[in-house]
Design goal:
The complex is a heterodimer of chains A (297) and B (320). Chain A has 297 residues and is mostly helical. Chain A has eleven helices and two strands. Chain A folds into two domains: 48 residues; 240 residues, MetI-like (MetI-like fold, Orthogonal Bundle). Chain B is built from twelve helices and two strands; from the N terminus they run ααββαααααααααα. Chain B has a two-stranded antiparallel sheet. In chain B, helix 7 packs antiparallel against helix 8. The two termini of chain B are 41 Å apart. Classes of the chains: A mainly alpha (297), B mainly alpha (320). Chains A and B meet through helix 1, helix 3, helix 4, helix 5 and helix 6 of A and helix 1, helix 3, helix 4, helix 5 and helix 6 of B.
């Protein structure tokens, strides 16, 4: 203490303190944002949990949607999401394999990559318009689960391509070279030495896309979702009810809005729980495969 | 899927069998290999086809608007009133103003907050705190927009009405704030990526000269990452301008040019969402909504392409 020259030490400490204090100030908006996310989730749960019950989940809306449950909405949402993934997962994964493994560095490849990124930035309502023009009208699918599912599939395709390509590219080249050196064809090398290891990453991307698709409203708005149907969908050409649209109608369109508010809260948390559930599973998969760098020696 | 799921294992083939069966099998394997490559190629082309398809359909339907209403009236008209009896007007200006004002407010909130947050995440946070914060931000990015719109309706709207003593909280301010929250995750994660692309040697050089982490972040890392950060702002803009459900639920939806933060407002997206259901298929009104969609598409596409080239430029600036 006594032998130490005081002046530079104090100055250094002051400079360091200023730097740290600056970062703490910078962290305030981030902290507020995180707090908001927690508050929002908590608020919805607190208000919605009272209407949650087995009957709410398993029954159809009744008495002009002022009573009953949301079962048809759950069914509809699950069906359209499933249709969308049936469309987008094979195409998306195949595209990703091409982009990661085959694509030469030329103009066409750049155009494809650019298209994928542009598609990811196209507003969801524009997908809705396109779905109306292409699926509902030109392909004559009508207002249906199929038309909505395909519209959603177009929308989540670029998400799936992006994450799958990243997962495949993360596999080191030596994996392929080992197989190729033993006489495997390119496809055999990919099939046996790349895809199995990229699988967790690809699955993460699919689950995240699934979660996001569950909550999308704008693309299905004019392609098949409906306010209320008496019976559950019987085929892919039926109209359907969906959780996000149900929440929208309960929140803004119903003629007894305040009376149905508890039901709206219930719908909101069921939707949110669905989304968060798939997100959580995806994150667990990602953490477990966080070993994309476990191969980098 | 290509036919063969179990390609021949070269190592498993007994040596003496090779001359007899090797050739046709090899040919099959080569064929499988070829067709797999073609299959993947065709699928990847589909993205470009879809993008062109969207463009083509929007254009094909959109231009039909102008059989009954002039292009100039559409682009510069200050009144959007397709339902007016006798003389409907299709002026896009109030809707464009609505979209840009909500997005402007969103960016005024999200850009400073997002960049600050990204600096903290990239330069200060480590270990589980970093993972937790990034996970939370990413989770929020996945929140259904209709849920956020619902929150705006039941919490934010009454709050705004009470605090500012205005009759309705469904207005420009409400929509702007919610869109700001929605574009925060985009801005945070793209900025974070941009900051992390800056090589570590830059920071180390600054530290070696005696710079504090603060000085390093603001004088070295931020300027080096500026094009990536600009890309983050662009992508945040794209996210906000294309959002439908939130503005549909909380913006009040009056197609007027607003005079204050507390006026209701109507965006391009919510106009399409409100009116597509009520316009007759094949009417001028119906086509006009596709023309709106086309304008929106061009805005989103332009934003994206600029952002993409900015990100490429940043990455290129660090490769020797």
């Amino acid at each position: 203490m006594t032998g130490r020259p005081p002046a530079p030490g104090r100055k250094l400490r002051r400079v360091r303190f200023a730097s740290n204090a600056g970062f703490w100030l910078l962290a305030i908006p981030l902290a507020l944002f995180i707090a908001f996310i927690v508050y929002l989730s908590g608020y919805l749960f607190r208000n919605g949990v009272s209407v949650l019950s087995w009957t709410f989940l398993t029954q159809a809306p009744a008495e002009g949607m002022t009573a009953g449950g949301i079962w048809p909405c759950i069914v509809g949402t699950v069906l359209v999401t499933f249709v969308s993934l049936v469309f987008s997962v094979p195409i998306g994964v195949f595209s990703a394999i091409y982009l990661a493994e085959y694509a030469p560095n030329n103009l066409l490849t750049r155009a494809i990559r650019s298209s994928v990124r542009s598609l990811a930035g196209v507003p969801s309502i524009v997908y809705g318009l396109f779905g109306v023009a292409l699926f509902v009208s030109a392909m004559k699918l009508g207002l249906s689960i199929l038309a909505s599912g395909l519209t959603l599939g177009l929308m989540n395709l670029p998400w799936i391509i992006a994450t799958a390509e990243e997962a495949i590219s993360a596999i080191p080249g030596s994996f392929r070279e080992g197989a190729l050196a033993l006489g495997a064809t390119k496809w055999e090398a990919i099939r046996h030495n790349v895809l199995p290891y990229a699988f967790p990453g690809i699955l993460t991307g699919i689950l995240l896309a699934l979660a996001r698709t569950l909550g999308e409203t704008a693309p299905i708005l004019f392609t098949g979702v409906t306010y209320y149907t008496k019976q559950l969908p019987t085929s892919l050409s039926s109209k359907f009810m969906a959780l996000p649209y149900h929440l929208f109608t309960l929140a803004t369109q119903h003629d007894r809005i305040l009376e149905v508010r508890p039901l709206a809260f219930g719908t909101a948390i069921v939707l949110l729980v669905f989304v968060l559930l798939f997100d959580a599973v995806a994150f667990v998969f990602r953490l477990r495969s966080a070993g994309s760098n476990k191969w980098q020696v | 899927m290509p036919a063969s799921n179990k390609p021949a294992e070269v190592s498993g083939t007994p040596p003496q069998g090779r001359t007899g069966t090797g050739q046709p099998r090899l040919r099959l394997r080569k064929l499988t290999d070829k067709s797999a490559g073609v299959l993947f190629w065709v699928n990847s082309l589909l993205s470009a086809v879809i993008l062109l398809g969207i463009l083509a359909f929007l254009l094909y339907y959109g231009v039909r608007t102008f059989r009954e209403t002039p292009v100039v009236g559409f682009l510069f008209g200050t009144k959007w009133n397709p339902d007016a009896y006798g003389e409907p007007s299709y002026g896009i200006i109030p809707l464009l103003v609505g979209s840009f004002l909500t997005t402007l407010i969103a960016l005024l909130i999200a850009v400073p907050a997002g960049i600050a947050g990204a600096i903290v995440i990239s330069e200060r946070l480590k270990g589980w705190v970093r993972v937790t914060v990034k996970t939370m931000v990413e989770l929020f990015a996945g929140f259904p927009s209709v849920v956020l719109g619902f929150f705006g309706l039941v919490v934010l709207a009454p709050l705004i009405a009470r605090v500012f003593h205005v009759p309705s909280g469904l207005n420009l301010l409400n929509a702007g704030v919610l869109l700001g929250l929605m574009s925060l995750p985009t801005i945070i994660s793209v900025t974070d990526d941009a900051l992390r692309v800056v090589p570590h040697s830059y920071r180390e050089a600054a530290y070696a000269l005696g710079a504090t982490p603060w000085t390093t972040a603001f004088r070295i890392v931020l300027p080096a990452a500026r094009s990536g950060i600009l890309a983050a702002v662009m992508l945040g803009f794209g996210r906000a301008v294309g959002e439908t459900m939130v503005v549909l639920m909380v913006a009040g939806n009056a197609a007027i040019i607003p005079h204050s933060l507390f006026d209701p407002i109507r965006t391009i997206t919510s106009t399409i969402a409100i009116e597509l259901g009520e316009s007759a298929f094949g009417s001028t009104h119906f086509y006009a909504l596709f023309a709106l969609g086309f304008v929106l598409f061009l805005i989103a596409l332009g934003t994206n392409l600029v952002a993409e080239s900015l990100i490429r430029r940043e990455k290129r600036s660090f490769t020797l």
